[in-house]
Amino acid sequence: MGVHSLTLAKQVAVSQLEALGYSYWPDNPGPRRMFFVKGLPPNGPRTHYIHMVEPNSELWEHLLFRDYLRKHPDEAQRYAYLKRDLARRFATDREAYTSGKAEYVQSVIQKARQEIVV
What we know:
Number of strands: 3
Number of helices: 4
Order of helices and strands: HEEEHHH
Strand order of the largest sheet: 1-2-3
Helix content: 55-70%
C-alpha cells in the first residue's frame, strides 16, 4: 500500500488497523516501510499482510513483480509452486520461507525490467 508519509501513517493507520485485528510489526526489517500482520503468532495463524511504503520506494518493484506475474501466467504458476514448497518445508520458520523466495523474486523483477526496456 502506498502512502504519502510513513510518519503520518504511523500516527493514523496503526490504531485503525489494530482495531481491525492487525498487529503492527515495528521491528520489521526495513525502515522505509511499515508491516502489519493479521494473525501474528501467538494470536493465530497469519492470514493477511499489509506493507506500507512511500512513493518511489520499493513499492515500484512490488508492482513490477505483480504486473509481470499477471502478464505471464506460466511465471505465476512457478511462483505458486515455489511458495507451496517453501510453505511445506518452512511451516514454522517465516524468515526462511521469505528468504527462500528472494532469489526467484529478484529474477522475475529483472525479467520485468528487461521487458520495459525492450
